[in-house]
Amino acid sequence: MPKEVIEGELLTSETKLDDYDVSKQIGKGKFSVVFRAKRKSDGETVALKKIQIYDMMDSKSRKKTLREVQLLKSVAHHNHLIRYLDSFLENNDLYIIFEWAECGDLRTFLRKQKQPLDESTIWSFFSQMADAVRHIHSHRVMHRDIKPANIFMASPHTLKLGDLGLGRLFSDETQEAFSKVGTPLYMSPEVLQGAGYDFQSDVWSLGCLLYEFAALRSPFGGNNENLYAIFKKIHECKYEDLPATYSKELRDLAYSMIQTNPKDRPDIETVAKLADDMCKRQRGNPHATLLVDLIIDKLKLLDYEVEFCREAGVKPLDKLKLVQKYPNTSSQFRYVSLLCHWLLAVSQKSVFLAVEVDTDAKKAASNIISSTLSMGYEGTVSSSNLQHGYGEAVVNVLDFLTARALEANDFSLEDPTYGQEEDVGEEGEEMLGEEEEGLSRESASGTWSMDGAFDDDSGIESDGEDLEGAVLATTRGGRTGATWYMEPSIPGDLWKEETKEIASELSQLTRGYAAILNGEKREQGGMGSLSHVRSLKRQVVWLKSTFDSVHEKLVRVHKDIQDDIAKVEVREKHISESFSEYADQMKQQSETLAGRTSEYDAVAETVQSLSNELQELVDNIHAINDSIEDKQAGAQDSKPLLKIRGALKKLKEEVRKNQQRSHPLYQPNSIFSLLVSIRSE
């Protein structure tokens, strides 16, 4: 694309790079670098994107970049779109100026999450993005690359959709696009297949985003899976179910948007409306939200952070948990149940023990409702509503119980009355002096008069009673604006004369008094003047008032300690009564255990005796076995002798036979041999 054409399309701004203070680099792409910068004209922080449109890009890439600028210009401003501010060419580079997102991108935010997001946050975030996509679709623009990395956080609660670099502007006649662009994990099946796609492809990506809000991971992502495995999962639309802790509406919406067939997905108008409705429902009733602030103020009057939170082992009340749903509703109701039972105990002046509160939600809710109704509650509340742990019904019950608890502790709840400001006047001034028992008081503008009996030697009369009668002798002669005019009780000429006479001493006294206030020691010089005496009187009065104030505080502290001791004694008595039965059972079991222990010892002794006898028998058996083995060994040693005897016997027999054969009678033809043979036959 010729340079002249590019310049003709872009150069409508006279902005130059010199108009910005460019600071650190915050991102980098193939052809571009993004910097944080500050606009010199008004000091606004911006994101400055520098694109090397001539040095590194080919014609196709330049065309794509120009399309991004055209898209940014064509879309009207929206609260949840990163705002395009300006663009210009300088030194063969294209610069695009965007709105700065202070809190980074959504991908980084989600990766840092250790716990699941609560549902109200998910609906708030998703509603913002759905509305932003609805807005660009209304301008016939498809984003085509919706993912957490392209969503930015202007504040912890505000998201803005950015990076239309892959966006596509559809004319009124265009129905489908065919180019395969986007990020694989968020690509719709029709884009992966290279088929035609339309605005419903953005709905698919939004569904993947909603799923990731709830699961903190992409529906089709995995550990080190290759592109083929990811494409296969997307084509088959296989993903794990979302946690059941989230509402059915959230899960159903996410599943309906991640449908293989684009026609089965809801359109962006339906998605945006449902997200907005759910967001409003999560925020709850505005009246209830305001009422929660009053409830917390009442709880603080009851010192609930000490009396309730410590005993129950819970944190101070989070007002959002009373007006919106959290993933773990059982813990929400458990907190409300403990708080209601504590308020009931305060109202009835009984002892609250967290361990005695029923853990069964249904029973605890029924107990709260029956007790509240018996105290005169006229509102409507059901067990199921109360078990939610949040909502208008819960807030109304808590408001009623906190009011009853305050009344039981002698708090009077009245609406404030407003009237015109009245001038106190001289009578009021005298009454003020009487109430403060004559102690001197400071005024923004006025004169001190300390009347008393003085002794030239001591400066103050020994009884010091007149110090108690020192009053503020001021009168209000009129009022102009915010200034009070007060007439001095000492004539002006005498005041001036006295001031001149002790001017140097006044300066020294001022420094000395400041030293006394700082806890330092001041030397008492020979100042017997009237000013010195007055200063001492003020100090005595101030010390006395301070002593009275401290004494009053000590009395209150002593009373509080006594009250705490009384509470501890009541609680100790209650615990003793509650567990006396268990103590008796424990005592009986201890006695039984002692008896069983004695029996065990006797049996163990018998077993030991029998074991000794058994050991003796075993030893005897071993001795007998040894004897048998010895005898067997002896028997085995006589075998050679027997063999010799057998051999001798055989030898003798052979000798005898030989002798017979050699005798004449035993010759074969002899008569004896014939007789022998005949006999044998």
TrEMBL record:
> Which residues span the membrane?
none
Residues given in the record as ATP binding sites = K49
Q: Which chain positions lie within coiled-coil regions?
A: 600-661
Q: Where is the composition biased (Acidic residues)?
A: 420-437
Query: One Pfam family for this entry, by name?
Result: Pkinase
Q: What is its EC number?
A: 2.7.11.1
SUPFAM superfamilies registered for this protein in UniProt? Protein kinase-like (PK-like)
Domain Protein kinase intervals: 20-290
Q: Which PANTHER family match?
A: CAMK FAMILY PROTEIN KINASE (PTHR44899), SERINE_THREONINE-PROTEIN KINASE NEK1 (PTHR44899:SF3)
Q: What is this protein called?
A: non-specific serine/threonine protein kinase
| Naturally occurring in which organism (per UniProt) | Palpitomonas bilix
Species lineage? Eukaryota, Eukaryota incertae sedis
